[in-house]
Amino acid sequence: MFGYVRPSQNRLSAHDEELFESVYCGLCHELGRKYGFSARFVLNFDFTFLAILLSEAGEPECASCRCIAHPCRARCVMTHAQSLETAADHSIVLAWWQLRDHIADHGLFRSLPYRLASLFLRRAYRKARSCAPSFDEAVQRHLAELSACERECCASVDRAAEPFAALMADMAAVVPDGPRRRVMAELFYHLGRWIYLVDAADDLKKDFASGCYNPLRYRYALTSGELDEKTRQEVALLLDLSVHRMADAYALLERGAWSNILDSIFYESLYGIGNAVLNGTYHKPPRRIHFRIKQEKIEETV
Amino acid sequence: MNDPYQILNIPPTATDEEVKRAYRDLARKYHPDNYHDNPLADLAQEKMKEINEAYDQIQKQRKASSAASQSYSYGYADPGRSYGGSYYDNNSYGASRLQQVRAAVNRGDISLAERLLSGVSEHDAEWNFLMGVVCSRRGWLDEARRYLETAVQMEPGNPEYRSALASLTGSGYRPDGFRTFHTANFDENACLRCCAAWSCCTLFSGGGCYLIPC
């Protein structure tokens, strides 16, 4: 997961911001409570978003508390809820397999930071696996499909995006069977697809430099890491199509207290984030996958 | 039946104008055009039926005293209409294989439709159209668009192909207050404010959520 999804701030009231913050902090506390301190580092916006989608439509229960990152001002923190626990389990499982994937992709020396991180995460992963065994199995299967796609330099973005999208759709399995699960699965599928494509657009330059697989490169037969205007429009349309599908699915959900936050995401900020990524004006928050930052440091010293 | 006012999300004291507006907004939201070739089309159809019935009921209640009750629907949707219904009808080629594909799509059996399509050697406009429909159902939107575009190019006069392409690339429903944004031409100033502000504000005022775990 990459942490791209966040609401447009100018759409949110003070109350909505507090709600969003309470889920973000709630998820962090849940990770800490269930998996220990080091697990808190896997926290990101996408799973916050996931926790919101899985939450009950009513106003959440909150408690005011301080923590190491906010020692002065006590924050409103969503208290233990099923949605937070699910999001926590899933984020640990996914983070673990992404680490394993990085380790497999890099040489012995380059994979050191990932190895170190996975050492810290091992115990948490074992516990998470026992809480979400079917998701664990699904992640392994889909990531294997993804590497197969990468190996053969697949030129279809749809096929390349499928494993990650399907992996996200599998998270809907925690929702009781029925129409709501179908809606969630569709929503998560296109969310995963969108995240995968945005990430591909974001990493295009880097992938060209390092020679890594990037679906956009083969789909549009690109010769450099820069998108020309026509291709940029094409990719933008591709992202639009996924956002529309998410919005259509979202329209079928009852979201109660969360509707302002979710409206701002589905009807506005996803377009803004996609646009910023395509224009190169999207700046990642500093702690976006901190493992990667460590790796860059090591590369600098080499 | 549930409270019709609750379904339209308005208080029972709402004026006729407000009822109409609420109904129109919801009808726009669940309009079949938004769910063309969408795996959730049946759920949207149910919603549409529900709000049509709720609106109908309110109108009846309110016009109970007046002699002639007006026709209620704005023609947004005919509840009985099957979404894929048209796939059966205008088959101008008589190709039984493609008819079977249409039937499979209507039943929602996408993998059968795909298998049948891969066995057809002649890739005419209708084949491309049906491939587009199948891809769209699966969520493979890039390929769906390409197939539908090819179908429209091969047969520009066909309204079925054109409308399928138009609803795939259309901008869909936005609630009041949200402009029709696109990724390509998003108002950059507004966007930067929302994206950059979020991380900066939280970094400086919120206390380093991103640097250390909270």
Just name the CATH architecture of the largest domain in chain B.
Alpha Horseshoe
The backbone outline of chain A, from C-alpha atoms, is globular
Instruction: State the oligomer.
Output: heterodimer
The total strand number of chain B stands at: 0
Order of helical and strand elements of chain A: HHEEHHHHHHHHH
**Percent in strands of chain B:** under 5%
CATH topology of the largest domain in chain B: the name is Serine Threonine Protein Phosphatase 5, Tetratricopeptide repeat
Could you give the count of β-strands of chain A?
Answer: 2
Give the DSSP E fraction of chain A (strand runs of 2 or more residues): under 5%
Would you mind describing this structure in some detail?
The complex is a heterodimer of chains A (302) and B (214). By secondary structure, chain A is mainly alpha-helical. Chain A has helices at 14-35, 45-54, 82-105, 112-131, 133-151, 157-169, 179-210, 215-219, 229-250, 259-279, 290-301, and strands at residues 62-65, 75-78. Chain A has a two-stranded antiparallel ribbon. In chain A, helix 1 (14-35) crosses helix 2, helix 3 (82-105) packs antiparallel against helix 4 (112-131) and helix 7 packs antiparallel against helix 9. Chain A is globular and about 55 Å long. The model of chain A is unreliable at 286-302 (pLDDT under 50). With 214 residues, chain B is mainly alpha-helical. Chain B has three domains: 4-62, Helix Hairpins; 95-169, Serine Threonine Protein Phosphatase 5, Tetratricopeptide repeat (Alpha Horseshoe); 184-214, no CATH class. In chain B, 59% of the residues lie in helices and 0% in strands. The longest helix of chain B has 22 residues, at 41-62. Residues 67-75, 77-94 and 191-214 of chain B have low confidence and may be disordered. At the A-B interface, helix 1, helix 6, helix 7, helix 9 and helix 10 of A face helix 3, helix 8 and helix 10 of B.
